[in-house]
Write a structure and sequence with these properties.
The chain is an alpha+beta fold. The chain has helices at residues 3-6, 25-31, 34-54, 76-96, 130-137, 147-151, 155-158, and strands spanning 11-22, 58-63, 66-72, 103-117, 124-128, 143-145, 161-164, 169-172. A hairpin with a 2-residue loop joins β2 (58-63) and β3. The protein is globular and about 40 Å long.
């Protein structure tokens, strides 16, 4: 049983929130049969959800071609490493299925409300609050995080990123400063 299933809900916790989104989804969906799109994305989120869980996190939900995940603040390094794996392994998986996409990752750390949300007898864990909104709004060309997320990392993990201004975000060393194509 994981710490995620032992939590008493609703609650508020400091979490590292990760949002990841695929480029060129509209093009892929336009040229691909709908059942094939479902098959590929179902397998993709199965893979990325496994990666996230193996690093102690939780895939909260997928929304079309995007995923929202969470890690406990004390597991920030593991969360960042998981999301780097989501980019690498998820991208390789998609390419092997004819979908040449980049995974854009956005990360923020702060207080989050957690609770069960949904239709009666179909409730699922969800997260709410300014931290979630801030994570989704981080500009990203590839992998970007806010200063609070960066400050939660160990010195070794911090070495994978460089400072980018304005506004201050920390982006992967290999990413450029240009606006991503959508």
């Amino acid at each position: 049983m994981s710490a995620w299933t032992r939590m008493r809900l609703p609650t508020q916790r400091e979490l590292l929130i990760g949002f990841y989104d695929l480029t060129s989804y509209i093009k892929f969906a336009a040229k691909t049969d709908s059942l094939e799109v479902l098959k590929v994305l179902s397998a993709y989120f199965s893979l990325t959800g496994r990666i996230i869980a193996e690093h102690g996190g939780k895939l909260i939900k997928s929304m079309g071609d995007a995923g929202l995940c969470a890690f406990f603040a004390e597991d920030a390094d593991a969360g960042i490493l998981a999301l780097r794996s989501v980019q690498r392994e998820g991208g390789a998986f998609l390419a092997s299925h004819g979908y040449a996409a980049r995974t854009l990752v956005k990360v923020h750390l702060g207080p989050v409300a957690l609770g069960l949300v949904g239709a009666p007898d179909e409730e699922r864990l969800d997260v709410y609050g300014k931290t979630v909104n801030a994570a989704v709004a981080v500009p990203s060309q590839g992998f970007a995080m806010t200063p609070p997320a960066f400050r939660a990392l160990s010195p070794e993990t911090r070495k994978m990123f460089k400072k980018h201004t304005p506004p201050v975000t920390y982006i992967a060393l290999e990413d450029s400063h240009a606006t991503p194509e959508r």
